[in-house]
Amino acid sequence: MSAGPTWEGGGRHPGWPARLGPLRVDAGLVALRPPRLFDASTWSRLRLRDQAHLEDWEPTAVGGWYDRNSAMSWPAQWSSLRASARRGQALPFVITVDGELAGQITVGNVVRGALCSAWVGYWVAADRARGGVATAALALVVDHCFGEAGLHRLEATVRPENAASLRVLGKAGFREEGLFLRYLDVAGDWRDHLCFAITAEETSPEGLVRRLVAQGRARTA
Questions:
Q1: DSSP secondary structure string, 160-203?
Q2: Model confidence, pTM
């Protein structure tokens, strides 16, 4: 692990920056690393190409898809992610497959103290949507959050129609906790979302990565 920055709470923000993996799945070698400024062109190419694959699952935002996902928009997003990480509020990572950027996974709204909780969200490029990429990335980040990052609970919300993401969360051991009615504005309307969660005790003692390996879904590299 590389040395981390000083954050506003004092000392090193636990768990970021970090490099996680690699973990071999059918799609290739999956690893996580912090986002970089020069990811702009690859990130934008994937996001613009995969609008139809992504837009129905992501919160509505100001501006059109092109404006929000052009290479020119990346520096501001990268800077915001890095600033949140340095304040101890987030752990942002890009997902790579065989060394190439293939998506993002972000742990956000990190709350310490008695709660020690956060949410996790991710997207994977359409041509990497199969082969275990999202499942491997989620396993890596959950183990990291419950290890070095010192969290106790992770939460994920997903539209009931998003069958692919529901499968990923199920494979990782997230359990359904309830339905949030009209929870987020997605694709131009207020959408219901299912809430899933997992706690550190539910991954003990082996962790999710070792569990995937034992199930034959992944191999350590």
A1: TT-HHHHHHHHHHT-EEEEEEEEEEEETTEEEEEEEEEEEGGGG
A2: 0.93
CA distance 104 to 100: 12
User: How many angstroms separate the CA atoms of 160 and 179, rounded?
Assistant: 9
**18 vs 3: CA distance, rounded Å:** 9
Task: Give the number of other Cβ atoms within 10 Å of residue 147's Cβ.
Answer: 14
Report pLDDT digits (tens) over 26-74. 999 999 999 999 999 999 999 999 999 999 999 988 889 999 999 999 9
What's 217's DSSP letter?
Answer: S
Distance between CA 44 and CA 58 in Å, rounded? 16
Q: Confirm if 144 and 20 have CB atoms less than 8 A apart.
A: yes
In the structure encoding, which two tokens stand for residue 193, read together? 């979302």
| Structure letter (DSSP) for residue 44 | H
